[in-house]
């Protein structure tokens, strides 16, 4: 009874989803190396002018804000050949020229062209004015930037730049290499087709429902495959099907079907939160270590004049006001990298680093004064702190909290990176990154083995899906022929 229903279900879902599964598996191979194009910050900094010109006392800038405005973000960088302050709060966002403190107005056409030249170079270009999203800017949130100017350069990389008419901001940059691999990888894998992706809610519903139905398809396929082996168990481990495509669909389903199930399920888990019944209670929310309630510390706290920092670090491209708890610091981007400068001492310019005392303050801020915990200096990877692509570095402070969620914190003293892990996070990581990209410590430490496994599983899943596509086409052909 169950098997008959499962056969029908598997056949119908295979008709609907087999092409999508083939697309997911094949594009997954490309996704190992190439993602969707994004504007790279390092690339932008390399082409951005260094801060220069006259800079005001910070108080004179802040006096221009209404008393009710509370800053959450403050930074300064170059806009073409003039330094500009970026001020943001909960209900406002404004830019002012550092040399005159006047508001930066909406850019005109000449400024847009100058910005495009700054990012794209001096090659010949074509300009298109967009009032609709396209393949490389498919996100609905960008509609507020219309019209968007697309600059297509005739250089060796065939660059395409998308600039906002409202702010002049560079929204997207692609070249022929990025576009080629995105068409084979990220676009089919994430179903980034403009007509669907521009509607965030519709795209999310489609992905979740397609993944959920895909799980049902894989489960029913596994059930049918095991049942077929059991029914013909006297013949040994041989597929009972004689037709070539059906036999190999059965065999590859038995080998790669479980991976196909976990692959599509983990893809769905990347888009949804853990349901309440899977969570171990309500875990402690991760805290932003910024002032109070995420706001910027009072300007008087930054006793080191930011202008001294600009004078001391050559080729500074951008400076940001930040804090770790109640400790102020500047984040400075230069031609040589990213620097953190302690802003609490006006007499000397020193790097800002996390000390054990500051880590203890942070832990108590998250968990309360009465929490029991231990701190150790971690110099080797552990089960909650490791990196396959070298994105994390050692050593770090490891904090083990004595609570029901087995919470761990990791603080990097120089990069100020913070990771918080608890039982709910571990489960989420297993169901998404673990099952989807084999993100396990054992494999992260063995990249050659990881690559081998991913290729075998993705190619096996691709052939399983291809055989499903062929069987679907054959079934449709038979149906059509019978109707004639």
Notable characteristics:
484 residues, alpha+beta, 6-stranded antiparallel sheet, 4-stranded antiparallel sheet, 14 helices, 14 strands
Strand content: 15-25%
> What is the mean pLDDT?
92
Structural class by sheet pairing and helices: alpha+beta
Rg, nearest Å:
28 Å
End-to-end distance: 32 Å
State the helical fraction. Answer: 40-55%
Overall geometry: globular
Strand order of the largest sheet: 3-2-1-8-9-10
- Total number of strands: 14
Order of helical and strand elements: HHHEEEHEEEEHHHHHHEEEHEEEEHHH
Task: Please tell me about this protein's structure.
This protein has 484 residues and is α+β, with helices and mostly antiparallel strands. It is built from 14 helices and 14 strands. It has helices at 2-31, 41-47, 58-62, 109-120, 176-184, 186-190, 194-197, 200-231, 244-269, 306-312, 356-367, 423-437, 441-444, 447-483, and strands at residues 71-79, 82-89, 93-97, 125-130, 148-153, 160-164, 170-174, 316-324, 327-334, 337-342, 373-378, 396-401, 408-411, 418-421. The strands form 3 sheets. The protein has a 6-stranded antiparallel β-sheet, with helices on one face. A hairpin with a 2-residue loop joins β9 and β10 (337-342). The longest helix has 37 residues, at 447-483.
């Amino acid at each position: 009874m169950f098997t008959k229903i499962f056969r029908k279900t598997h056949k119908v879902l295979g008709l609907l989803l087999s092409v999508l599964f083939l697309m997911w598996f094949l594009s997954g191979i490309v996704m190992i190396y190439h993602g969707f194009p994004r504007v790279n910050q390092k690339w932008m900094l390399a082409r951005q002018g260094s801060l220069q010109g006259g800079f005001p006392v910070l108080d004179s800038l802040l006096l221009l804000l209404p008393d009710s405005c509370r800053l959450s973000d403050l930074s300064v960088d170059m806009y073409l050949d003039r330094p500009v302050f970026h001020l943001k709060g909960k209900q406002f966002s404004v830019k002012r020229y550092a040399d005159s403190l006047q508001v930066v107005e909406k850019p005109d056409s000449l400024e847009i062209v100058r910005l495009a030249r700054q990012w794209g170079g001096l090659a010949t270009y074509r300009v298109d004015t967009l009032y609709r999203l396209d393949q490389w800017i498919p996100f609905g949130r960008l509609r507020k930037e219309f019209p968007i100017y697309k600059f297509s350069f005739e250089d060796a990389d065939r660059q395409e730049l998308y600039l906002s008419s409202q702010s002049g901001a560079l929204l997207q940059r692609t070249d022929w290499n990025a576009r080629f691999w995105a068409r084979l990888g990220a676009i089919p894998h994430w179903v980034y087709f403009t007509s669907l992706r521009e509607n965030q809610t519709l795209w999310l519903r489609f992905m979740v429902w397609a993944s959920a139905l895909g799980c049902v398809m894989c489960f029913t396929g596994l059930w049918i495959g095991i049942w077929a082996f059991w029914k013909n168990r006297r013949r040994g481990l041989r597929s009972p099907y004689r037709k070539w495509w059906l036999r190999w669909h059965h065999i590859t389903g038995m080998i790669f079907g479980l991976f196909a199930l976990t692959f599509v399920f983990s893809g769905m888990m990347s888009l949804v939160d853990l349901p309440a019944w899977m969570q171990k209670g309500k875990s402690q929310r991760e805290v932003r270590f910024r002032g109070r309630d995420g706001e910027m510390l009072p300007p008087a706290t930054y006793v080191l004049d930011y202008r001294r920092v600009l004078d001391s670090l050559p080729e500074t491209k951008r400076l940001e006001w930040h804090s770790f708890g109640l400790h102020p610091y500047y984040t400075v981007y230069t031609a040589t990298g990213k620097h953190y400068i302690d802003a609490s001492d006006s007499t000397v310019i020193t790097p800002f680093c996390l000390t054990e005392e500051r880590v203890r303050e942070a832990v108590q801020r998250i968990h309360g004064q009465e929490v029991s915990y231990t701190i150790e200096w971690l110099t080797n990877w552990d089960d909650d702190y490791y990196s396959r692509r070298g994105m994390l570095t050692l050593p770090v402070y490891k904090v083990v909290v004595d609570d029901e969620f087995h919470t761990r914190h990791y603080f990097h003293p120089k990069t100020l990176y913070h990771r918080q892990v608890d039982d709910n996070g571990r489960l989420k990581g297993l169901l998404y990154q673990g099952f989807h990209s084999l993100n396990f410590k054992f494999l992260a430490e063995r990249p050659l083995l990881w690559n081998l496994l991913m290729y075998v599983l993705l190619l096996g899943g691709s052939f399983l899906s291809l055989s499903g596509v062929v069987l679907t086409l054959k079934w449709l052909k038979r149906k059509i022929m019978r109707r004639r």
